[in-house]
Amino acid sequence: MNLIPHLASAAPFTHGGNLRKLAASSGRKMSELLDFSASINPLGPPEYLRPLISRNLEALLHYPDPDYDELRQSAAVRFAVDPSQIIVGNGSTEIIHALPAALGVARAVIPGPSYLGYHEAFAAISGQVHYLSLSSKSNFAIDWHALTEELTGGEVLFLGQPNNPTGRCFELSQLEEVMARHPATFFVVDEAFLDFVVDQPSALSLLSQYQNLVVLRSLTKFYAVPGLRLGLAFAGAGLAAQIRAKLPPWSVNSLALAFGTKVLLDDGYARQSQEVVSRLRQELADGLAALPEIKVFPGQANYLLCQWLTLPAGFRTGSEVYAALLAQGVAVRDCANFTGLSADFFRVAVRSAEENAVLLDALGAMSATKRVVSRRRRTPALMVQGTSSDAGKSVITAALCRILLQDGVRVAPFKSQNMSLNSFVTRDGGEMGRAQVVQAQACRLDPDTRMNPVLLKPVSHVGSQVIINGRSVGTKSVEEYVAYKPHAFSAACAAYDSLASEMDAIILEGAGSPAEVNLKRHDIVNMPMARYAKAPVVLVGDIDRGGVFASFVGTMEVMAEWERALVAGFVVNRFRGRESLLDPAFEIVKKHTGRSVLGVIPNLSDLGLPEEDSVSFKKGLFNRPKPTSAESVEIVLVDLPHISNFTDFEPFLLEPDVWLRVVRTGDELGDPAAVLLPGSKNVIEDLRYLNESGFSEGIRRLAARGETEIVGLCGGFQMLGDAISDPHGIEASGTLAGLGLLPISTVLDQDKTLTRQSLTHRASGFTVHGYEIHHGRTESGVALDPVLTDGPPGVAAGKGLIWGTYLHGLYDADAFRHWFIEGLRQRRGLAMWQGKRGCYNLEPALDRLAATVRERLDMSVIYRLMGL
What we know:
With 868 residues, this protein is of the alpha/beta class. It is 32% helix and 23% strand. The two termini are 56 Å apart. 46% of the residues are buried.
């Protein structure tokens, strides 16, 4: 250990983390830099930072408490000291600068390399600093014997615990021995990074025995809020009062005080940070040590000190290497200005695993080994999230899929978890959400369960059938599914990786809203999936329901900082009117969030695309006005509480002579040409509903008159029979009598039927295509009309105008649907329809949608966000 005495002199600001300077040097935006020069908690601040700051903004109207009583009380509890022993500063650096005057000393002893702030504090008073150079050969361990010889009394000794930049800690017993022998020396132990170290005792345990001890703590590094500036110091009550007297009044603002008061008592965040940082530090150290040109010094903090044993080819100094890294957007801490070090040394902060991998790749590319860290290839991606359910996420996702396809990009849709009763069966017999099927068609891809690896089909108010990768894994309550979610998320990530590996780009869809704070803790579909996919997020809001701009701002306000960082902008959906009227609102949103509105999509009625779930259906999407033509036929669709696959009936919306009317009580049935009973996810409970709401009696009455065609699809088919049994409790245990209109009985099996079918409708001769999704096994003891041919028994059965089938998608076939409607017209005494009929072809609808969205959304920004 060599003594290096000199007078302290002022120096320019040379600390890490100067993003503005780094950006200017690199020619990049600050947001484009990975800053390894400042050692900040890679977890980011606690999630309650923003609401806490927002809640305390009104405190800015008043002076902060000059005594900082609430913060000192929290610190007293956290560190088990008396409030009188606590000093509060605008960062620990402010307290360090107050020490020379408060302690009445002009000489400092600093084992170096060490934090430059100690030197700067004495430079401000033209004091004298004695550096004791620590040797890299001993990994910068303190030579306590040599250190003791330099203590004469009347000076201050600065010790980092852990040291900055080496990350080394020392044994408290060694410190205590020296303190006991030198009562005239002030000992300042800087524990700014000690919170990151697992099981390392604090010098605060010595505070009650030694009146010449000052312990420093920084809150902003560990809690990842360096911009707030908040530090603490601890000393005996008398010495603490002396230090406080040298600090300016009100130097700590109200927001920092409020934050510190809360975080000091947050043990959960502290434990998580230690666990994560310890793991990430070891992984980073191993990666750096694998490069033969670099030596990594052992350390316990959230940073690592490294040394170039051999500079990369083409570089003369370490500083040139760091400049080259900065040009790539990676900033490390050049340690040339640390006493005892040279430009051959550099310090790197521990950041996230992905960010650390970027650093290792950049260094590995310079190494003679050309070592590259194995990282998952990032497929260009974008996620569409919404401020609420039914904001238009599915439609915007489909539009972007079609636009990218038109531009020659191999693109696929993805939604990690979908809750919907509208499902579809793929060619290999897997079950997935219908919305992703439409999006797959927008990409001209065959539906693939990897596009929707987790599907939830509610069977009650508190439980859902859980389908993973197209196969049911059982029915789970809310609590059971929350416990199962880690497995579901792993399955979703694996499906995403597999799908993304085959594509040029992925358009992801969120669910509900990322602002659903009661669900965020175990969310697997919104921000966690966006982070996994490295997908920027556009947030869609429905202006038609009102409050869209407040929704944008409010959604951002309840997000954690890492979530906000993923949001790239907003899309206003379903707008009616002149867009220029929205300009003032755009400006306000930008001021509050820092994000812009990327596009305004007009209200697109009658798109002709299947709905995602029952939200729009329940709003009354099907309750269109009665056609003006007197020659229209009325078809009634019974709305069941657990309705599923209601898209079976959407093709009727295209027909100009059909009035499709949704009814919710038996009194609303009237005298229609046809009654449609849809599928159900809980057929026994929905059958009870038919009995209680008057539907059963009304439908039987229509059947007895013989003038109304009554059709049941899937669950509706089962309800037309004599009885439905659920012996295994798949949906609702027990047996219930059906409507008794068909001599069939159904037993719900544990095994689900999942199959695609192409059959012939016997009466019309037309081919119909569809799929089966059901647990029921339906049988009859008597001969029934074979409604469909070429299919297995039990798929469809009928008796006169009453019939049913398990085949979903029956009415998608234009020829059969037109034949069916003409039959209704004929029985009602109406002439054959002479006008143009509907064509259920999604291709024109998707192209119209894509053309509109392309025109109204800034696609150049979208492509830039995706990196395409």
